[in-house]
């Protein structure tokens, strides 16, 4: 199953290449944020943004409330733990 998991952008590593660090369940990982940046919201402004992360890309920005609801639902479904373990093993 392919999931978009909410993650919090905690740092922008390389604004020119649109690379940022996202935290999901205590795990930090580099992702590409090209899909969520534009002239009005450049890479440097993304720290603190919640995004849906899928296969190493921040696919869309979401608000903190939606992120919390999604994480709660995924946790209840047992999917978050499996995805976090997969991230840890591939790091």
Can you tell me about this structure?
With 91 residues, the chain is of the alpha+beta class. It has one domain: SH3 type barrels. The chain is built from two helices and five strands. A five-stranded antiparallel β-sheet has the order 3-2-1-4-5. It starts with a strand and ends with a helix.
Summarize the structure.
With 91 residues, this protein is of the alpha+beta class.
Structural class: alpha+beta
**CATH fold-type name:** SH3 type barrels
* Strand element count: 5
Low-confidence parts: none
Q: Tell me, what's the shape?
A: globular
How much beta, percentage-wise? 35-45%
Main features:
alpha+beta, globular, 36% strand, five-stranded antiparallel sheet, single chain, 91 residues, 5 strands, SH3 type barrels
Task: Please outline the helices and strands.
Blueprint (H helix, E strand, L loop, with lengths): L4 E10 L4 E6 L2 E6 L17 E5 L2 E6 L1 H14 L1 H12 L1
Antiparallel strand pairs: 1-2, 1-4, 2-3, 4-5
């Amino acid at each position: 199953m392919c999931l978009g998991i909410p993650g919090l952008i905690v740092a922008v590593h390389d604004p020119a290449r649109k690379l940022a660090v996202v935290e999901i369940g205590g795990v930090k990982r580099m992702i590409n944020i090209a899909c969520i940046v534009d002239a009005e919201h450049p890479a440097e402004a993304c720290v603190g943004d919640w995004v849906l992360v899928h296969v190493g890309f921040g696919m869309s920005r979401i608000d903190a409330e939606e992120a919390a609801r999604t994480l709660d639902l995924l946790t209840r479904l047992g999917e978050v733990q499996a995805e976090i373990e997969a991230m840890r093993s591939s790091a």
